[in-house]
Amino acid sequence: MIPAIGHYIVNSGGKRLRPLLCLLIARYFGYQGDRHIPMSVVVEFIHTASLLHDDVVDSSYQRRGAPSANGVWGNQASVLVGDYLFSRSFQMMVSDGDMEMLRLMSDVTNALAEGEVLQLSRTFHLEMSEAECLEVIERKTAVLFSAAAEVGSHVSGQPANVVAKMAEYGMCLGVAFQLMDDALDYLADEETAGKPVGHDLEEGKITLPLIHAMHSDEALRKRVHSIAERDAYEEGDREWVRERVEAQGGAEYAMKRAIDYAERAKKALPDFGDVDIRNLLARLADFSAKRPY
Ligand code: FPP
Ligand code: MG
To answer: Which of 96, 141, 145, 283 is the most buried (most CB within 10 A)?
Structure first.
């Protein structure tokens, strides 16, 4: 079952931005060794493990344009194979033998789990502020992007101040990426997104497009309140909420904030290193904030 689910996930594609960041950043600093390769696998394994768990937690049955692993093999298999990948990534780090790497990745996975629990504790929390929303985003998503960037610069032997700058680049890019994910839940169609859309509120996730739209729309706030009380959508809720969020420019606001974060990411890039790769890293930040899927 482990190879079956593993192959299914590998063949399902995905943007693979996290390992890409790790590999590109090692090359950006002229790294000549090969440690960045298993370390980028570690980052992607942790990401995949977290998605296997996340689709169970979110009762979501579609990902990357196909049925998610829990949709095909069921919840138990998804959780357990997620555990396998997660523990495998720690075995790989122990083989690599760098205590600094283990410290970084254990902190990151702990933050990931904390972020998810924080999000769960804020289910249907209508008073969610923009700052709280960004705190969840940093912990549940951006920390892993930040770690990928940190790993790439750490293996290439960069001093602490440069590693910290790259961690900031990854963190800001990760926030931009998740803000865009939250905007796409209100903007994209299911085929383009490759996963269910209009699903965040159904799961009780109060994200930035909705927070912004509720500020100036009392009818929307009331409707969201009654969805929260029922803890379920009724016929027409999804479309009505999407239209109101669109009318209030909620997704546009989240996208604007994503662009701000992408700009911050680009500013964090040091002005030495391979120029072509620097340009690619800048384009990756832009892509995270403007992606259509
Ligand atoms: C996707 O968010 C989910 C995450 C970014 C993190 C999931 C983390 C965990 C379940 C806990 C940590 C687990 C391990 C094994 C380390 P989303 O639901 O907003 O995005 P989606 O629309 O792509 O599902
Ligand atoms: Mg999810």
So the answer is: 145
